[in-house]
Design brief:
It is built from eleven helices and eleven strands. The protein is an alpha/beta fold. It has an eleven-stranded mixed beta sheet with strand order 1-3-2-4-6-5-10-11-9-7-8, with helices on both faces.
Length: about 375
């Protein structure tokens, strides 16, 4: 098991943090946990988020391991090793920010940074029993982050509690108001999105809203399935542009080689159709948020499968069915550990807010955190 590609000691005496290996740290190669990028020269300067963390006194303790090239949901990596799932070592840690989630869950760091293009923060957070936030698209700088260009990818933090997550957001996001990101007071209206997921997880979502004394009603979210498919189309196009040339190296893992070859076949017409779905779904989410403070739904439709199941070919496509759509729309979305009746494992409660209202998402998450701990 390997949560870190490298252990480091950079920065001040503040909280400890791990940095995903798609985020530049000056003097160290950014390899995206891929043999094909092993000979990449060291980064010349820190990514902007790393600069901000160091300026805020945080202590960087490692480059976090990940699913190769951030292009996968299991977190399995036969080149750099597979991080351990802190909830159950037999299960996948989730991808692609596997090492970031595992490092936080195993208490190797107080917090971690990951990236989320199609659920790559929220998925591992739910698998590993920690908190993970995908901020509003564009809220946190991607300068010095691979891939260099993306219309979906967001840098965001992991933590074991909301207090630390808010502190991390305050460090990496310009003008993040920590005062309004602490526990939500007064009335709280939530829309429970109708979602296909295991019955015990759906029940846990409803129960959480009740425990947090929220006014809740169930609502459909038009285009959720279409947004899931369209999101993959955009990911395929943008990942192929960024990393498709590495297929020729012959150094990619088998799963990455196959996925990148398939991604290269995405047509311009498919991308145009996906962009129309993006516009429609974004409008649908905005409309759903008109009369509620946040939307809530499961992060993942089921508990993570075992490593053995994943290696034997069990499909993980559905893992991102409820998280990838919000990359397409660009709304802030947070995964909070969610207790399930009769299970030692926690699932994930996904909290989705209006664009730019990341602080409100954090404040409502803190309210749920307190209620679920009671």
């Amino acid at each position: 098991m390997n949560e870190f590609i490298q252990t480091l000691s950079i920065g001040g005496a503040g909280p400890s943090i791990a940095i995903k290996d798609t985020i530049d740290i000056a003097g160290y190669a950014t390899t995206a946990a891929s043999r094909a990028l092993a000979d990449t020269p060291p980064a010349q300067q820190h990514a902007e988020v790393v600069e901000r963390l160091i300026a805020s006194g945080w202590h960087i303790v490692g480059k976090a391991n990940m699913h190769e090239l951030a292009f996968g949901m299991t977190g399995i990596n036969d080149y750099t090793g597979t991080p351990q799932n802190p909830q159950d070592a037999a299960r996948i840690p989730g991808g692609s920010s596997s090492g970031s989630a595992a490092a936080v869950g195993l208490k190797l760091a107080d917090a971690a940074l990951g990236t989320d293009t199609g659920g790559s923060i929220r998925g591992p957070a739910a698998c590993c029993g920690v908190i993970g936030l995908k901020p509003t698209f564009g809220r946190v700088s991607r300068l010095g982050v691979a891939p260099r260009e993306s219309t979906l990818d967001c840098v965001g933090p992991f933590a074991r509690d909301m207090r630390m997550l808010v502190a991390a957001m305050q460090a990496i996001a310009v003008n993040f108001d920590a005062n309004t990101a602490h526990a939500w007071q007064g009335a709280c209206k939530v829309g429970i999105v109708q979602a296909e997921a295991a019955a015990e997880i759906v029940e846990a979502v409803t129960r959480a809203a009740d425990k947090a004394s929220c006014v809740a009603h169930t609502l459909p979210l038009a285009g959720l399935a279409a947004a899931f498919d369209a999101g993959l189309t955009v990911i395929n196009v943008e990942t192929s542009r960024a990393f498709g040339h590495l297929v020729a190296s012959g150094k990619l893992g088998a799963d990455l080689d196959a996925r990148l070859r398939a991604a290269a076949n995405t047509t311009a017409a498919q991308l145009d159709a996906a962009e129309q779905v993006r516009r429609d779904f974004t409008a649908a989410v905005d409309h759903a948020l008109d009369n509620v403070d946040v939307l809530i739904l499961p992060t993942l439709p089921a508990l993570p499968i075992t490593l053995e199941q994943a290696r034997s070919g069990t499909s993980v496509i559905a893992m991102s069915s409820l998280i990838r759509p919000f990359n397409l729309s660009g709304h802030p979305a947070l995964s909070l550990p969610l207790p399930i009746s009769g299970s030692p494992l926690k699932a994930g409660l996904q909290i989705v807010g209006r664009k730019g209202q990341d602080e409100q998402v954090c404040a409502i998450a803190a309210r749920f955190e307190a209620a679920l701990a009671a």
